[in-house]
Amino acid sequence: MDSSKPACATFFEDSTMVISKRDRFYAKYYQQNFSMPNSIIFYIAKNPKTAGFYLKMVKTCKYFFIKNKIIIIQNLDAGDGEWRSGNVALNFTKYNCKYWITDKIKASGLGFVGKNIFSPIIPRLYQCDVKCLFLSDQIISYNDLSLLISSAERIGFIDVFAKYADSSDVQLEDIVAIAIKAYEISVIKPTITSKTMKELTKLANFTKLDNLNLHNLSEVFDIDAFYCYMKKNQQTKLHISFDEQISEGYMNRLETIVDEILETKQFNYKLVAEILGTNQFDYKPPFIGFTGLDIQKFRKLCQIFFY
Predict the structure, then answer these.
(1) Residue 146 CB-density burial (10 A; 0-12 exposed, 13-18 middle, 19+ buried)
(2) Which residues pair with 169 in a beta bridge?
(3) pLDDT over 90 at 273, yes or no
(4) This protein's superkingdom (predicted)?
(5) What angle is formed at CA 16 by the lines to CA 10 and CA 22, rounded to 5 degrees?
(6) What is the helix (H) or strand (E) element at residue 237, kind and residue range?
(7) Around Cβ 271, how many Cβ atoms within 10 Å?
């Protein structure tokens, strides 16, 4: 076989043309006479704009697969010690090709030694266009996370710890900064500092979120910075909750904020505002959960938040 020649999806055997219905390529092929210069065809083969376009190309002519071997995977799951796509187990080292993930990644590192389950497959990824990214029990490098998160619209993390090359922790604000297309972010046990809330409010994509859920926050979270932001927030449904280790003084500050929310007469409900043709609603009420919150206040807060 002369691999320097382009290959066509119509195959030949014994000088007789047949239309292939088999799920494999024949070893022999004849040169395809493209209507464009070979240099342009080569560029197109090496630079597919979308996964759908790439699939159309390889179905048309096997030349495109030979020049750029990519396997398209919609949903990628990890659990019980192996990677899967639906019911199909995946071995990323079996084939000499790259992988393009298009829709969703749901991966748990629970039970994996070191919990760095992405390190073997990241070098095999051609591109990641996932809209949903759900990770739990992970230790992942910042560079790997940057590759996975950039296209995600819905993000959920449980006990996920991102690390820079020097092994230092990546803070929540730095993760949100690279989640440029996200409209919903949920994080349990986020890595934060006293500056996290202030840094988040500086991010343009943070102020455009539809939903933000932060759970098991520690007392280091700047609740006063959050309070200032919530009073002018008219976009994001904010749901925060705290671990059981917060001090009584911090708990009292939270309850004061909850009391103010419960006493507010006007909130920013967009649908109501549009119906009434008014902009009089002040801010979108958040939900603040913590141990020790009075049950009646909790119920009223739920009614307001889930209105």
Answers:
(1) middle
(2) 163
(3) no
(4) Eukaryota
(5) 45
(6) strand 237-242
(7) 8
* pTM of structure: 0.82
Q: Which residue, among 226, 228, 233, has the nearest Cα to 207 in the 3D structure?
A: 233
**Is residue 160 within a helix (H) or strand (E), and if so which, with residue range?**
strand 154-163
The CA distance from 19 to 8, in Å, is 11
Cα gap 294→254, rounded to integer Å: 12
Q: And the tokens for 82?
A: 């192996």
The answer to whether the beta carbons of residues 136 and 111 sit under 8 Å apart is no
Per-domain residue ranges of the chain: 1-67, 69-170, 195-307
Task: Residue 86: count other Cβ atoms within 10 Å of its Cβ.
Answer: 10
Phi/psi for 148 (5° steps) reads -80, -30
Q: Residue type at 270?
A: K
Residue found by looking up tokens 């055997």 in the block: 13
Please say whether the beta carbons of 122 and 144 come within 8 A: yes
Cα–Cα distance, 260 to 274 (Å, whole number): 25
The pLDDT score that the predictor gives to residue 289 is 95
